[in-house]
Amino acid sequence: MFAERWFYDLIMYIYALSLLFAFSDIMQSSRRARRLARFFLVTVWFFQTVFFTWRVSQFFPKLVGVDSLLFYSWALVTASLVIHYLYRMDFIVFAVNLLSFGFLATNLYITPKAGLSLTEPLLSELVFIHATLAFLAYALFSLSAVCAGFYLIGNYMLKQKKWNRMLRRLPSLGRLQLFSYHLNILGVPLLISAIILGLVWASEKMAGGFWYDPKILGSFIVLIFYCIYLYQRFVRGWNGQRLAWWSVISFFTIVLNYLISNAGMSFHQWL
Predict the structure, then answer these.
(1) Which has fewest Cβ within 10 Å: 2, 44, 67, 123?
(2) Where is the Cytochrome c assembly protein domain (predicted)?
């Protein structure tokens, strides 16, 4: 247990170093700082991969809160590295990893009993697949919200005619909006699949009262918000600021849903 905690803390420290160098590069462009940030981020990804793979091999399916957060963070780190190597979007990469680091750090406070295993009724490979799909969807929605947030910032700066370094290093508004839109398209079917698998498992293992679980109701609210996003884009032709704001608002339903699951109000506390 001590070794696990030490390794987890090591990941956090290296992650913090990566963010510090990335922030330094953003404030004052530095090739050396950029390289160090990338090196430490790749190191974080490698250690997260090793740590999560080890936990899955040792404890599957007895996974706990720290595992779900670690997988969510790993998905964001992986996506940010892909974005960096394909598109060189430094601001997007920094913001995504800042979000990932924040969620990973909350495990130290929100789930202090993360070392406890799940109770026997919750152990199931189906639950593992359900949680994996859900957190992949959340990672995609998080990336979409970051792109939408930078769209709003860039749009505001253009209207105010603030031609500074940050605006020059941002991707075009059209690219940001397209990224946000495509990420949401990918995330919605993943979330639908996760909900369906969760309901199938719950109907077989639990009484009908699971329908009143706050986490399940919250998941449906999240899905409704993102389905409305796609409806507004496909059918009503929403574009620009309205669509970006809806993406950001939808992301906050995910945050609220996560907080509910860790507030002792749901049997999903381990998620």
Answers:
(1) 2
(2) 67-263
Sign of CA pseudo-dihedral 215, 217, 222, 226: positive
Structural domain that includes position 224: 123-271
pLDDT digits (tens, 9 = 90+) for 82-109: 988 888 888 899 999 999 998 888 766 5
pTM for the predicted model, two decimal places: 0.81
Token output for 28: 């004052």
Number of domains in the chain: 2
Query: What residues have CB less than 8 Å from 177, skipping those under 6 apart?
Result: 147, 148, 151, 239, 240, 243, 244
The reply to whether 113 and 127 lie within a common domain is no
The answer to whether 190 touches 242, Cβ cutoff 8 Å, is no
- Residue 146 and residue 87 share a domain: no
Show which of 117, 143, 170 is a domain's final residue.
117
Is residue 214 reached through a cis peptide bond, with omega within 30 degrees of 0 on the bond before it? no
